[in-house]
Amino acid sequence: MGDNTFSVLNTICTDLKKPAKSIIFRQGEHADFLYFIQSGALKLDYQLEDGRNLVLDFLWPDRFFGIAENETYAWSATTLVDVHLKRFKLSSVQVLAQEHPNITNLLLQQKMASLMAAKTHITLMSCPTATSKLIGFLLEYKKIPNYFNPSTQVLTLIMSRKDIADYLGMTFETTSRIFKYLETNGYIKKLNHRQIQLNMHKLQLT
Amino acid sequence: MGDNTFSVLNTICTDLKKPAKSIIFRQGEHADFLYFIQSGALKLDYQLEDGRNLVLDFLWPDRFFGIAENETYAWSATTLVDVHLKRFKLSSVQVLAQEHPNITNLLLQQKMASLMAAKTHITLMSCPTATSKLIGFLLEYKKIPNYFNPSTQVLTLIMSRKDIADYLGMTFETTSRIFKYLETNGYIKKLNHRQIQLNMHKLQLT
DNA sequence: CGAGTATTTGAGCAGCATCAATAAGAGTGG
DNA sequence: CCACTCTTATTGATGCTGCTCAAATACTCG
Predict the structure, then answer these.
(1) What digits encode the pLDDT tens for the residues A1-53?
(2) Does residue A46 sit in the same domain as residue A115?
(3) Contact present, A98 and A148 (Cβ < 8 Å)
(4) Same domain, B41 and B108
(5) Which of A187, B60, B75, B145 could form a disulfide with A182 if both were Cys (CB 3.0 to 4.6 A apart)?
(6) pLDDT for B99-122, tens place per residue?
(7) Nearest-by-Cβ selection for B122 from A56, A67, A116
(8) What is the pLDDT of residue A1?
């Protein structure tokens, strides 16, 4: 797969840059494009009629997104930081996939990644306490390159307390309180609101 | 797609029947087979090291499952009732997919279905109260043919209180208490532990 | 019918949501 | 660069929700 598949796809892609906190597409919009993240990060969020706002996933470089069902995006995509994307017209991708079946394999692989992310998400949400949810979240987040500095053990959170809360199924006040609790008990040290130093010795025991 | 793809797949499938409460595969086992549900129902569950047992999804007829990552099943599959399956050797499917690209499209479609189910699941888990979780669950479950009788409005639950609890992220005692609450307040009527008559007028208001 | 399993019910406590107010940080324009 | 505004984050007080542990009841299956 790999190289050849990508070079074929590259013939129909458009480069795209978006600033932080901009919307790439909204849930319900007609799905015309498939996207690929070259750099940056974004969240997939979903608004419910009752006013709740869920964060379904956070996406990092090398991920495709926007593969829709029913011709319509089922959720919105919002950038967290400045991003650099590739954009593909979905109809062109479908045509191209006829001749290059590996494109479908690539999309299948990406769906697989989404599904494993969903499993992790569900696992975190099922944690019995807010503390274990948040610790689980930090340990997952630590795996993301660029936002964790292994030598200083500092995590750079690029999402708000509310985003984390909407991802874990709790209120942002609770998120804030648990951060406080973790700091008080030596699990983390807050350098500022978005920079958190981890004490892995304590965190791993949980 | 459809007919041709299925008839090609049928050349390599084995028929398989399993009684209720039997394990089709376990998480961690080497993934040799892909399955298709002809009739019956099952759950996908996942054991955590800390003793928690998650139910990731309930599966109904016409669904493929067992598409693995890393050569290994990431969760277990357990039947809820007697099931009738088709089984495909994964290696054979891969070979066949080379000549019949629509097989990959079919698998992609199935992954899409899994992902939408995960979205529904996450949405339910994010409900602020156990009552809204359970009502949401009942309204989703109602959509499954065979287990809801529209003329009598009776749901037949084929899973235990614990399965529901493990799916929604709560304890089975709470599940039981909420059923009681729903009955007391006229949302449902329990004919017995597994047969529940819905009062849609009241349920839909939530 | 009897043993094992599933479900219900109870009492008490811990944890989280809610509402509310304050503090910190980010962004803007003079 | 500072003052002002707006957003994001923290902190407090209170009550309800759901978990825990425990016991009783209902159901299933051989």
Answers:
(1) 456 887 888 899 999 999 999 999 999 999 999 999 999 999 999 999 999 99
(2) yes
(3) no
(4) yes
(5) A187
(6) 999 999 999 999 999 999 999 999
(7) A56
(8) 46
Task: Tell if B193 CB is < 7 Å from nucleic strand C.
Answer: yes
B109 plus B158 within the same structural domain: no
Q: Which of B93, B124, B155 is the last residue of a domain?
A: B124
Range of the domain at B177: 127-203
- CATH code where residue A187 lies: 1.10.10.10
Residue type, B143: K
One domain, residues B17 and B115: yes
Three-state SS at B78: strand
Q: Do A107 and B108 touch (CB under 8 A)?
A: yes
pLDDT value of position B205: 79
Of B48, B119, B125, the CB nearest to A74: B119
Whether residue A185 lies within 8 A of chain B, CB to CB, comes out as: no
**CATH assignment at residue B50:** 2.60.120.10
C-alpha distances in Å from residue A75, one per residue of A24, A59, B183? 11, 13, 35
Closest residue, by C-alpha, to the C1' of D8: A160
In the predicted model, residues of chain A with pLDDT beneath 50 are 1
> Which residues does residue A88 pair with via DSSP β-bridges, in sequence order?
A13, A34
Residues A14 and A106 in one domain: yes
Q: Beta carbon of A195 within 7 Å of strand D?
A: no
pLDDT digit string, tens, across residues B66-83: 987 789 999 999 999 999
With beta carbons under 8 A apart, name residues in chain A contacting B105. 104
Query: Do B170 and B105 lie in a common domain?
Result: no
Joined tokens for residue B126 = 């994010």
Query: Does the beta carbon of A46 lie under 8 angstroms from any beta carbon of chain B?
Result: yes
Say yes or no for a CB contact (<8 Å) between A126 and B46.
no
Hey, which residues does B190 pair with through a beta bridge? B196
Number of domains in chain A: 2
What is the structure's pLDDT at A3? 63
Question: What contacts B56, CB < 8 A, 6 or more positions away?
Answer: A119, A122, B43, B44, B45, B46, B75, B118, B121, B167
CA distance B201 to B206: 10
Q: Are A66 and A31 in contact (CB under 8 A)?
A: yes
Question: Is the same domain home to B166 and B113?
Answer: no
- Stated pTM of the model: 0.96
CB-based contact, B204 to chain A, within 8 Å: no
- pLDDT of B35 above 90: yes
B1 pLDDT band, cuts 50/70/90, is: very low
Show which of B94, B124, B154 is a domain's final residue.
B124
Q: What is the pLDDT of residue B147?
A: 95
Indicate whether A180 and A109 sit together in one domain.
no
